[in-house]
Amino acid sequence: MKIKLKKNEQVTFKFLDTCEFDFVNKKWGAYVTPSLFKRCKKFKLIPALIENVEENSINLALVKLGKKRKFLQTLDKKKTHFIGWLKSKNFKLK
Predict the structure, then answer these.
(1) Which one is predicted more confidently, 86 or 15?
(2) What is the pLDDT of residues 47-61, one digit of tens each?
(3) Domains of the chain: which residue ranges?
């Protein structure tokens, strides 16, 4: 599916019955996730950085709380390297 958004338009994807993921088109780029440390916590999602070795890319994954082991096992099968969990203590927030 392709969705074409005008400036400042937003689309919200609902998944896992309780989670939401927003994408907002901005003139400078886009907001592409819910707040990593507020809304993700509310939706019981943990942000993680992963590297796809074959594609030479770094991606953001949102992992359901309680599913870390399954997530890490999946990475092994897909030749994807786990970089780390993103935590608010790693960032200076005002």
Answers:
(1) 86
(2) 999 998 888 899 999
(3) 10-87
What per-residue confidence (pLDDT) applies to 10? Answer: 93
* E strand intervals along 1-94: 10-15, 19-26, 29-31, 45-52, 57-64, 80-85
Return the residue matching tokens 């780029």.
29
SS3 73: helix
Which residue in 54, 61, 56 sits closest to 82, CA to CA?
61
Which band of pLDDT confidence, cut at 50, 70 and 90, is reported for residue 81?
Answer: very high
What's the pLDDT score for residue 27? 92
Residue that is written with structure tokens 């590297």 in the block: 51
Alpha-carbon span 56 to 53, nearest angstrom? 5
What's the pTM value of the predicted model, to 2 decimals?
A: 0.77
Cα 68 from Cα 58, distance rounded (Å): 18
Task: At 66, list the tokens.
Answer: 């309680």
| Burial zone of 90 (CB within 10 Å; 0-12 exposed, 13-18 middle, 19+ buried) | exposed
